[in-house]
Specification:
The protein has 315 residues and is of the alpha+beta class. 20% of the residues lie in helices and 37% in strands. The protein has a 17-stranded mixed β-sheet that branches. A hairpin with a 3-residue loop joins strand 10 and strand 11. It is globular and about 50 Å long. The structure holds pyrrole-2-carboxylate. Pyrrole-2-carboxylate binds next to helix 3 and helix 5.
């Protein structure tokens, strides 16, 4: 019998489950090394925590780790029903609110180590959180891919802590009632990208697909639908996806440093995004994403080896 202590929250509708105790023993090393150990030796703990019957297709897990650097308040490894994430914007906002709920941090600036670099989080006095995400950039503008049932689709390939394909031109309505059609379209796009060999840097798989449309709620912004690696859609506007969007807006000369972009999600929640320029790398932006999260649960998960579904459905 294993017991795993978790705190649940949601950020703009997207759940985050932080493992506080009882997680896998990953030893020392960088967060990237520990993530590989998690994947190689303890993957069934990932599936037990986020898959049904304990989790859901939308649940993102966050394993709280000792940081290697003493100026970081925490280290974190994000994961979902399909595998491991480089960074997670909504999850970082959820983690900060969780640490505040536990009394471990107060308002102010905090550094968090992830497998793809250190992110800085500002907890504001009103409870909102701003994440200074990893440097983000557009790799390819206007890549074209032939999508079964839809014909040629063009989009940008950009990095925001995960790899994204960002689509502006399409015929779909961005409404919650249309999630099945949006999921079908974006899943086909993802498969077509893989089949055509369109990738991120160094052949990295593009595992997030983002579709944009007009928003009637926000000004200077848009509404999005984001397909996550495990085929669930992001209930939040997606922090890493908004970072990739900021990189594309900058590359197209449509948003200047410091100007605010409002990214509304398919569920109606909104992140504020802005960027500064990376002084060391032309074309890269340093995104800042602001959003709110709320704690929704405090639980101990019980993993009983007599249970045939102990490691989660499909595991
Ligand atoms: O907010 O970056 C994000 C994210 C990635 C996957 C789900 N949410």
């Amino acid at each position: 019998m294993m017991r795993i202590r978790v705190l649940d929250s949601h950020t703009g509708g997207e759940p985050t489950r932080v493992i506080l105790a009882g997680g896998p023993p990953l030893g020392d090393g960088s967060l990237a090394e520990r993530r590989e150990r998690f994947r190689a030796e303890h993957d069934r703990i990932r599936t037990a925590v986020v898959r049904e019957p304990r989790g859901s297709e939308a649940t993102v897990g966050a394993l709280l780790c000792e940081p290697t650097s003493s100026d970081c308040v925490a280290g974190v490894i994000f994961f979902d029903n399909a595998g491991y994430l480089g960074m997670c914007g909504h999850g970082s906002i959820g983690l900060v609110v969780t640490l505040a709920h536990l009394g471990r941090i107060g308002p102010g600036s905090h550094r968090i180590e992830t497998p793809v670099g250190v992110v800085t989080a500002e907890l504001h006095a009103d409870g909102r959180v701003t994440i200074a995400n990893v440097p983000s950039y557009r790799l390819t503008a206007g890549a074209r891919v032939e999508v079964k049932g839809f014909g040629a689709v063009s989009g940008d390939v950009a990095w925001g802590g995960n790899w994204f394909f960002l689509i502006e031109n399409h015929a779909l309505t961005l409404e919650l009632s249309n999630v099945d059609a949006l999921t079908d379209f974006t899943w086909r796009v993802r498969q077509a990208l893989t089949a055509s060999g369109i990738t991120g840097k160094d052949g990295a798989e593009i595992d997030h697909i983002e579709v944009f449309g007009p928003s009637n709620r926000v000004q200077r912004g848009s509404r999005n639908f984001v397909l996550c690696p495990g085929k669930a859609y992001d209930r939040s506007p997606c922090g890493t996806g908004t970072s990739a969007k900021l990189a594309c807006l900058h590359a197209d000369g449509k948003l200047r440093p410091g100007e605010v972009w409002h990214q509304e999600s398919i569920t109606g929640s909104v992140f504020e995004g802005r960027f500064t320029l990376d002084p060391t790398r032309p074309g890269y932006v340093l995104p800042e994403i602001t959003g709110s999260a709320y704690v929704t649960g405090d639980a101990t998960l019980i993993l009983d080896e007599r249970d045939p579904l102990v490691w989660g459905i499909g595991s």
